[in-house]
Amino acid sequence: MKKLLLTLIIGLLCAPIFANNSLTADFTSGNPEIGSINAMTFGPQGILFLGDSKNSQIVAVDLSAATKATNEKLYIKDIEALLGELLGADSDQLQIIDMVVNPVNQNIYIGAQHSSGKSFLFLVNNGTLENVPLTSVSFSKVDVANVVSEDAKDRRGRSLRKLAITDIQFADNQIMVSGLNNAEFASTFRAIPFPFTKTQNDSSLEIYHAAHGKFETHAPIKTFMTTTINNEPHIIASYTCTPLVVFPLKSLTPGSHTKGRTVAELGNWNTPLDIIEMTKDGKRYILMANTNRALMKFKVADIESFKTSLTTRVEERADTEGVDFINLPFVNVQQLDKLDDANFVFIQREANGKLALKTSSNRWL
Amino acid sequence: MRLRIIILCLLQTLAIGAQSSKFSFTRTSVTITTEDTNAQIKVYKGSYDSENQIENKTAILGNTSHTDSTLIFSPLIPFQKSGSYTTVINDHTFYEFTIPLDPNYKHLKVDEIYPNTATLPANFLKWYIAFSKPVNPTNIYNHIGLVDNATNTKVDRALLPLENALLSKDGTLLTLWIEPGRQKRDLIPNKRLGAVLKEGASYTLIIDKNLKDVDGIPMDSSFEYTFKVITSDRDQPNIKEWEFSIPKSNTKDPLIIHLNDVLDYGSVYNNITIISGNEAVLEGSFTIKTNENKVLFYPINNWTNDTYTLKCNKVIEDVSGNNLERLFDRNIQKEIVQPTLQRTFIISD
């Protein structure tokens, strides 16, 4: 009994220490050698995950010590011009790749790429962009090179195959990665436990979607998010060829052939860009930004009640089928993330051609 | 004091020497000779010569260091070739400079496109475009279009734009997808707009000359590739129909595999292996000539009298995305037939 009590006391004393440091216990300080920033997401405790296609890795950077930015008014009217000035380059040599918000302190980070292939991380602060150097940070990383064959080279010795990371998300103690393969038109999706270990026990899935019960195809996932559907953790994924597909997180088992449930088709030439969840008055909504369509709003309850896959053709409105959605009056939204419980931040190509960073609230929900 | 120096230097080196006793620049730094170690140095993109002009401008990010007699600014990324900049000391002394372009500069060009056949099936899926040097990946799809030759108009929503361009690691090989939602049977884009390519029609893929390389220098001329569209390909490639030109024993002559179909260039890479009779993977190199319907294997060591096996990965696909195992958009009411994935051949004297 004494032994049990002693164990309990030691356990209680140690628990908070382990709880605080468990995720960053294996982090090291130094240069994670980031080749490119292709996708970003925040995990818990201010840990930023970066998807690096160039060096085929996922890098977790501890930003918990970062100071909260001062942003009285979140508005940058021409973020492309600002980036051009800051990097001394023409705006067509620069591209914003991703934007994420640290849910711990609402700091907004932007990943940008220069034509040389170099990527930069910026913090939105005081109406401008501050460079966040990534050469001396506390980090941990994992290799994702084996998604594609490393030794594939053509006769000029150029490495052909590459995984292009399209999106990463953290949920359920794992980082999930979707990617395009430049050689095969297939879905590449894997879940990697975090904290990273030397012996990965990750899942690589084949995900299909069906069109009206007649044809099924491989297809790359463009963007995705995790949420609960009917009290079960699920992934909501949007493909390059328009279907919106859900599948349960528990289906992420190594080597599985998962067929997602198609709940909607979202229209012609509509490449999805970002997808987030917002809540208002206890109701949950999905917001999705697209290349060629307005910001779309779905009710999670509608997805929950849409029990079947799209099996027969249902004419609901021109060009779209399945779960109902509403187009919000925000067009050409290129980046989107949840700022806090009531607001979202986005980067929008405005009618004047300029790319602006701005916010809006859940009054639209 | 307001000093204005315009330097248009035609030197081809990146590290240009001192352009004046007080001011010099290279692509990666600006150096000012000064004994004022507290002097403030800022560099702006563009040509300016007064404080008013830079009032609303943001200075380039970089690092500043100094010695007893010099102040050095190093930008985060090298100054752009042909780009003009202005260095401002203590907000009032201006030095304008332009990074020169080598007059013999080799401009970006398209070396090859796969496939480059005169005809393509209506359900064609993707091209690979090989550039002569690393290409600027940012907004690359804005410079590529498909034109219907009958109307001489750009085909709307024909190519899939991606934020992260599908480029090989060295930045020279671009994968370009026809909009997949329109190529897949029964998806809404396919039903509403039909396939991108109409059977019998003629098209030209155009890469406009404004596409730049990683240094920001555009191509010399546009690239065009014209083709005619034939009926959709809904047959899987079948390696049983491949023919071999078999080399003799005791030579290092290539094994030539004659393909029965135009295969997808990328999918063939690293997906064929040659196995010897004792089940060892033969060392050697493949040359993929999908534009000539050929694959060549050059062994490192001489062929010996033996029975060899050619093994293929099921992901090898044709130009319509049909692979050895399944059609691109498979009718799920039809059963999958187990594909043939290996062939044997005999080498003799």
Description:
The complex is a heterodimer of chains A (about 375) and B (about 350). Chain A is mostly beta strands and about 375 residues long. In chain A, about 10% of the residues lie in helices and about 45% in strands. Chain A is built from three helices and 27 strands. The longest helix of chain A has 20 residues. Chain A is globular, with a radius of gyration of 21 Å. The N and C termini of chain A lie far apart (about 55 Å). By secondary structure, chain B is mainly beta. Chain B is built from three helices and 24 strands. In chain B, strand 12 and strand 13 form a beta hairpin. The relative contact order of chain B is 0.12. At the A-B interface, helix 2, strand 5, strand 10 and strand 14 of A face strand 4, strand 14, helix 1, helix 2 and strand 20 of B. Strand 14 of chain A pairs antiparallel with strand 23 of chain B.
Which descriptors would you attach to this protein?
heterodimer; A: 365 residues; mainly beta; Methylamine Dehydrogenase, Chain H; 2 domains; six-stranded mixed beta sheet; five-stranded antiparallel beta sheet; disordered N terminus; B: 349 residues; Immunoglobulin-like; five-stranded mixed beta sheet; four-stranded mixed beta sheet; 4% helix; 33% strand; elongated
